[in-house]
Fold this sequence. Notes:
Blueprint: H1 2-13, H2 24-38, H3 50-66, H4 82-92, E1 100-105, H5 120-131, H6 143-154, E2 160-166, H7 169-175, E3 187-192, H8 195-200, E4 205-208, H9 214-225, H10 233-236, H11 238-260, H12 264-277, H13 282-288, H14 293-302, E5 307-309, E6 312-314, H15 317-328, E7 340-341, H16 344-353, E8 362-367, H17 371-380, E9 388-393, E10 413-417, E11 435-437
Parallel strand pairs: 1-3, 1-4, 2-3, 7-8, 8-9, 9-10, 10-11
Antiparallel strand pairs: 5-6
Amino acid sequence: MIKLWRTALEKAAKLSGYDVVNQTYAYSDLLSELQSLLSVHTTGLILEHETQVIQEIGAIISARLMDRSPLHDVGDNIVGMDGHLDRLKALIEIESDDVRMVGVFGIGGIGVSEASKGGLLELRKRLLTDILEGPINLGFNNTSQGINVIKNRLCSKRVLIVLDDVDKLGQLENLAGKFYWFRAKSRVIITTKDTSLLDQHGVIKSYEAEKLKLEEAIELFNLWAFNKNIPNPKKEFESLSLLVVRYAEDVLSILKASYEKLEDLYKDIFLDLACFFKGEDKDFVVRILDEYGKIGVKVLHERCLITISEYKLDMHDLIQQMGRENVRQECPKEPGKRTRIWDEDDVETMLKRNSATGAIEGLSVDIYESDQIQHTRNALKKMNKLRLLKVDNLFDYWVPFPMDFKFPLELRYLNFKRYPLESLPTDFHAKNLVKLDLMMSNIK
């Protein structure tokens, strides 16, 4: 840091200044160079006083700033946001000198967020690239390096960061881990559907984004449903708009009732899709599910719980959230006693506590630390009903791996990215196995 300061001061000492007195022509030359550098043009460079010089420089810089395009054109189709913005401004308190993190939470589908996310390493690099304009070297390839780069590069900058649709604590810890990572007056806005993440990360200031009021919902519906050539759609179709909006409010309740009416067999298939297979190829998923998979997918489609488009299985975010919440409620405080575990934080809790049980039928685990291998090995020994297993080794190098690693006998789907051993265990049973995916593995 001292070296950086020394270099900066040396550069500052070499900057030349100008005396306003009797320097009209010098200023004209200076402003001409400034115009060329900023790619703007002004007229009338006949300067007589210091105030003129300052005004002319200000005009050039303002012209350059005005020429910049906005980040996003939000248009006129924003309804019911004024109240949200007022509450957000009150929490941000832009005049305050502290570093502040603010949370916005609520159920999916009401405007909290619809953004998708990439991997953490990619997100870190994108965060730094967006803030640090210009060519920069971001040559980090693991968690600790990425955190250090963020701390070192952003600690001297006043920044506004929006972390959208956060659903894992690790995302917060790796992208905005501590308040001291950022310069005074910096603000971090976090949107999420899980308030526990805000509590765990020490976010004190937060508020719940409520659904639109009835009149706002009707206004939004009218904006998108009717052609602009209709001068007053609300008046002409008021009763129809009201009916549609009220029906939409009841949709989730109707879909939940549809789920509750399913036979247990089809409920299990729905939960598999909600936890592990949203967006996957229909035929691929049907093969992985048991002999009732084909009819099960058909039933779920008929009940409008899933959609099928271009052979891909999909479902609304709210429906997926409902299914996953049903799994969480099987045992809210102990993930190892649930039937399916996909969430990174729940997996880590289960592995560290060594609390896996025979109830687990599906597991998705990301390996990013070497000690997780041993924890995973011990956990799998207890999962005698495990049907679905997805393991993703997030490192580019081979993690030390025990030779006596064993897989459960009931597996129908095994996906192990970068499997490090040269062969599967000698006692590996593939009687029920339908799909084996060892992409980028070390298999001979």
